[in-house]
Amino acid sequence: MTFTIAIDGPAAAGKGTVGRLLAAHFGFAHLDTGLLYRATGRRTLDGLDAVEAAQNLKAEDLKAPDLRTPEVGQAASRVAAIPEVRQALIDFQRAFARRSGGAVLDGRDIGTIICPDAEVKLYVTATDDVRAARRLAELTGSGHDVSYDDVLQDLRLRDARDSARASAPLAAAKDAILLDTSTLTIEQAVATAIAEVERVRGG
Ligand code: CDP
Ligand code: CDP
Question: What is the rounded CA–CA span in Å between residue 113 and residue 62?
């Protein structure tokens, strides 16, 4: 059985959290595709060429401890605008999406470019303020010394760059279901997503 759930949306909207819990609920595998770009961007901060870094990405690169910082986020969104970088990461993502047993992928171009035939597409959003507050809590909770303004600026810069690029820009697929998590708890957001998947699976 293959079944793909594609989740897209702007930075820190709750894509990864909803994706992880949806995958756990249905027993599917989950891939946070942002990690591929973060790990590539992280390597360019060490002086590596972006395309080479993407082509030679290793599983252990995805486990580096500082991948969630705004600095690495910015590097990720810069390399993500390079078509050859995106190209180098496509096959892995598509193979993951069609693995047997079901898969959830979250990112920016999953429902539009990576998996245009996904059985379920969600576009997860929240207001800038809510997203910045959530990401700040996450970063300070894991010991990073960042300010609300730094986090807000990082999200806004990345969203603008990700939306404006020519290659696979951040966009909702025409057939995506909109999920605004601004006033939802994680449990409410996940319950809404589960109901959408059940609707498709049942019908
Ligand atoms: O993957 P993405 O960057 O879109 O967001 P995330 O990392 O899943 O979520 C960012 C933060 O918001 C995490 O700390 C989540 O626990 C939190 N969150 C929340 O408080 N309420 C939601 N409905 C969804 C996420
Ligand atoms: O967690 P957050 O939403 O803050 O970011 P992320 O999902 O980890 O993605 C980091 C950056 O990678 C984004 O700002 C995009 O530039 C890029 N990205 C992308 O271009 N395409 C994807 N499918 C996933 C991430």
Answer: 22
Domain contains 65? yes
Residue 185: C-alpha distances to residues 14, 43, 47 (Å) = 10, 35, 40
Residues written for the chain: 203
CATH number where 10 lies? 3.40.50.300
CB-based contacts of 133: which residues, under 8 Å, 6+ apart?
148
* Domain range for 116: 4-196
Compute the distance from residue 181 Cα to the ligand 1 centre, in Å.
9
Best residue among 30, 62, 77, 123 to mutate for probing ligand 2, ranked by most atoms within 8 Å of CB: 77
| Model confidence band, residue 165 (pLDDT cutoffs 50, 70, 90) | very high
Ligand 2 centroid – CA 203 distance (Å): 32
Domain count, the chain: 1
ipTM: 0.98
Q: What is the pTM of this model?
A: 0.98
pLDDT in tens, 8-21: 999 999 999 999 99
